[in-house]
Amino acid sequence: PAAGSLAGKHVLITSGPTHEPIDPVRYIANRSSGKQGHAIAAAAAAAGARVTLVSGPVTLPDPAGVETIHVESARQMLAAVEAALPADLAIFAAAVADWRVADAASEKMKKDGGALPPLSLVENPDILATVAHRPNGRPGFVVGFAAETQHVIDYARVKLAKKGCDLIVANDVGGTGVMGGDANTVHLVTVDGVETWPTLPKEEVASRLVAHLAQKLAAAKAG
Ligand code: C5P
């Protein structure tokens, strides 16, 4: 295969936010657009990979040539990811909700002029950590994202270890609208060090990341 090629590889990608139901008509969500994850899926397909994209609710079209599985909640995302394994490379770009409502109501909640409804929250499964720590069937290379507003690289190093992944793509989401925006400034954090890229369009971050990862997979195979 040509340099930078992912021909013959299965690449699994998560993208977008998750929606966590409160009742049948309401949910908890976040500002993720899915632009970065979807751009990575398109770039991996362009590099020749078979790509499975597990996407939360987004307004983007399914990328051409990518098998896209649509989910809403974190638990559905985890189930779809596990069903899509094995993979040579997994990239977890979704902004998964940290919490869900403990007992989502099965009927629409009514405001009855009385007490405010309490929302008790429970922690969602960590999809990245679950997959990266699998004793069997762990993807050959696992990439996480870390969106932070301060101490971006320090927090990314902690996350790399805690989640058990091979690379963290850290980005500063403080200030200028990265979430929902078209550009991204990223730092590639591994146990070996940090590589900082200039601010680039999300499509360009995606194609550079795919080329970088194709090289890593080739090197791992050779070494
Ligand atoms: O802990 P934090 O949410 O900052 O970690 C971000 C990374 O972990 C991202 O790669 C995200 O896709 C992944 N993640 C996940 N499942 C969660 C929370 C985060 O896969 N429940």
TrEMBL record:
Ranges where the DNA/pantothenate metabolism flavoprotein C-terminal domain occurs: 6-215
Region (Phosphopantothenate--cysteine ligase): 11-223
TM annotation in the entry: none
Residues binding CTP, per UniProt: 98, 108, 125-128, 145, 159, 163
Reaction catalyzed: (R)-4'-phosphopantothenate + L-cysteine + CTP = N-[(R)-4-phosphopantothenoyl]-L-cysteine + CMP + diphosphate + H(+); N-[(R)-4-phosphopantothenoyl]-L-cysteine + H(+) = (R)-4'-phosphopantetheine + CO2
Enzyme Commission number: 4.1.1.36, 6.3.2.5
Pathway: Cofactor biosynthesis; coenzyme A biosynthesis; CoA from (R)-pantothenate: step 3/5; Cofactor biosynthesis; coenzyme A biosynthesis; CoA from (R)-pantothenate: step 2/5
Leader sequence residues: none
Cofactor comment text: Binds 1 FMN per subunit.
Cellular component terms (Gene Ontology): phosphopantothenoylcysteine decarboxylase complex
Keywords: Decarboxylase, Flavoprotein, FMN, Ligase, Lyase, Magnesium, Metal-binding, Multifunctional enzyme
GO molecular function: FMN binding; metal ion binding; phosphopantothenate--cysteine ligase activity; phosphopantothenoylcysteine decarboxylase activity
Annotated function: Catalyzes two sequential steps in the biosynthesis of coenzyme A. In the first step cysteine is conjugated to 4'-phosphopantothenate to form 4-phosphopantothenoylcysteine. In the second step the latter compound is decarboxylated to form 4'-phosphopantotheine.
Protein name: Coenzyme A biosynthesis bifunctional protein CoaBC
Range covered out of full length: 203 to 425 of 425
